[in-house]
Amino acid sequence: MKKIITILAVAILAIVISCSTDRSTTGLDLEKTTGISDGTGSDGEIFSTPAFAGQTIEVGKVSATMDSQYLNITYTLTGNWYLTETHLWVGQCDQLPVNSQGNPVVGSFPYQTTHDGNITTYTYQIPISSLPENGFCITAHAVVVKKVDGVVVQKETMFAYGTDFEGKRWGWYYQYQ
User: Fold this and answer.
1) Residue 43 confidence (pLDDT)
2) Which residues contact 7 (CB under 8 A, 6 or more apart)?
3) Separation CA 156–CA 105 (nearest Å)
4) Any idea where the domains of the chain sit in the sequence?
5) Coil, helix or strand for 162?
6) Which residue, among 100, 99, 92, has the nearest Cα to 139 in the 3D structure?
């Protein structure tokens, strides 16, 4: 009986440890798996980076391009994932809205759109004239759903991959100079 209790205790401990939300214990080595482009592409590409839902589920990508008038931030989902909300921050890095713990406050992002859950691509156009001249930060967040035969089977939050926020919650931003 003691052996069974010991095995159960070890199994429960393993489950608790594996369910941790700490980014360092997710088991996903993002540095090696993402293939981020950082502006070396053509046609004014600034970056293209994977978009992750629920911390580790790659659901598509977010890309940024710049033309003569606009910075274009495009969310593109794949694999039966759809957008229901998008939230975008583009501005001075030191003004990015975070709480006292250093976590992003996406409800305070200036660009927000509610979607009907039937689109996989959405683009924000930010006038270049409104961007800081000395560089800026971009944080692309969304609420996404996965559908099977038109029925929602999963709902998650999503961030475009980049640099970790200082807080304990997961999420990333991209700094452009």
Assistant:
1) 56
2) none
3) 17
4) 32-176
5) coil
6) 92
pTM: 0.77
**54 φ/ψ sector (left φ>0, alpha ψ -120 to 50, else beta):** left
Q: Which of 113, 123, 111, 114 is nearest to 66 (CA)?
A: 123
Residue 21 tokens, joined: 């939300």
Are β-strands 136-148 and 81-91 bridged in parallel, bridged antiparallel, or unpaired? antiparallel
Q: Where are the alpha helices (DSSP H) in the chain?
A: 2-18, 30-33
The predicted structure's pLDDT at residue 145:
98
pLDDT in tens, 73-131: 999 999 999 999 999 999 999 999 999 988 899 999 999 999 999 999 999 999 999 99
Exposed, middle or buried by CB within 10 Å (0-12, 13-18, 19+), for 72?
Answer: middle
Class of residue 112 by CB neighbours under 10 A (exposed 0-12, middle 13-18, buried 19+): middle
Question: What does the pLDDT read at residue 8?
Answer: 36
**Structural tokens at position 69:** 């008038």
Give SS3 for 34. Answer: coil
CATH of domain 32-176: 2.60.40
